[in-house]
Write a structure and sequence with these properties.
This protein is 27% helix and 21% strand. It has a domain of 166 residues. Strands 1, 2, 3, 4, 5, 6, 7, 8 and 9 form a nine-stranded antiparallel beta sheet that branches. With 292 residues, it is α+β, with helices and mostly antiparallel strands. The protein is elongated.
């Protein structure tokens, strides 16, 4: 009687099974690889959008808090170095002063006022082609708006950065957007009513670029006056006198200090000054005890 062998697979059957398994594994691996690649691209896009949104939010926040301070004439300035505020905007560069400074150290002798400067520059080679947007912040506001503070990069791969400034004195919308703004020049002592910011970022790998557009409106467009009312009145009077051809400016200035002026007691005008002695012929003087 013949014994039967144990049942099993032939070599051909095993090879066919391995080939099928390898094919299924290849299909699954390809599917997983596409999933990982898609996840990586989506993460890159999300990170890029997040970077762009954060830059735009920070820019808009600081611009809304920008301000100007009324400056004293040189003869009245007491600060050394002088405290100077300025809004200087170009198409791809912007400098301003704002109350947006955040103190990072406890008990730091800093206020919320600071100088801010945004500009483009060719930086180190990064993941994306294009320029790098830099931000400079100086907690000390002084007479050198282009120097001081710390500089650090905000975002790489910038294809375009564009600032536009709305001039509400213009009637036509296309003409109202200016390419520059200077509070020390043509736009003296006035901030733009709106600033439009356009940021275009490269994505790389022949992917479409990302464009961000927002607007910011400064809350305080006119200079903040820190001049006492009495001193401001003197400055206004002196400026008005300087522009009036009928006013003798040297005589006006001399009259503030000469014996016959506001505080003097001129022998020829003893009662003509506010502090002069009583004059029987000038019963209306400030020091006269007589009345009409």
């Amino acid at each position: 009687m013949r014994r039967r062998g144990k049942p099993g697979f032939t070599l051909i059957e095993v090879m066919i099974a391995l080939a099928i398994l390898a094919g299924v594994a290849a299909i699954v691996w390809r599917s997983m690889a596409l999933t990982f690649e898609t996840k990586k691209r989506v993460s890159q896009i999300n990170d890029r959008y997040h970077e762009g949104r954060q830059v735009m939010l920070r820019l808009a926040r600081e611009l809304r808090m920008s301000f100007l301070r009324a400056e004293l004439p040189d003869e009245f300035k007491e600060e050394d170095p002088p405290f100077t505020t300025q809004f200087l905007g170009e198409e791809d560069e912007l400098y301003f002063v704002a109350t947006a400074h955040l103190r990072l150290h406890a008990n730091a002798r800093e206020s919320d006022q600071a100088e801010f400067h945004y500009f483009l520059k060719s930086g180190d080679e990064g993941e994306y082609e294009g320029k790098t947007l830099y931000r400079r912040e100086s907690a000390r506001v002084d007479h050198r708006p282009d120097k001081g503070g710390a500089i650090w990069p905000l975002i790489q791969g910038v294809k375009e950065l564009k600032f536009e400034y709305w001039d509400d004195k213009k009637e036509i919308a296309d003409d109202a957007w200016k390419r520059s703004w200077n509070t020390k020049g043509e736009d003296k002592d006035l901030l733009p009513s709106r600033i439009r910011i356009t940021l275009v970022l490269n994505m790389g790998d022949d992917r479409p670029e990302i464009r961000f557009v927002t607007q910011a409106a400064p809350k305080l467009r006119r200079p903040i006056s820190s001049i006492p009312p009495e001193l401001q009145q003197q400055i206004d009077d002196a400026q008005a006198a300087a522009t009036d051809p009928n006013v003798d400016v040297p005589g006006l200035v001399e009259g503030l200090t000469n014996p016959g002026g506001l505080l003097g007691g001129d022998p020829t005008n003893p009662g003509g000054g506010l502090g002069g002695g009583p004059d029987p012929l000038n019963i209306g003087s400030a020091a006269s005890k007589k009345g009409p």
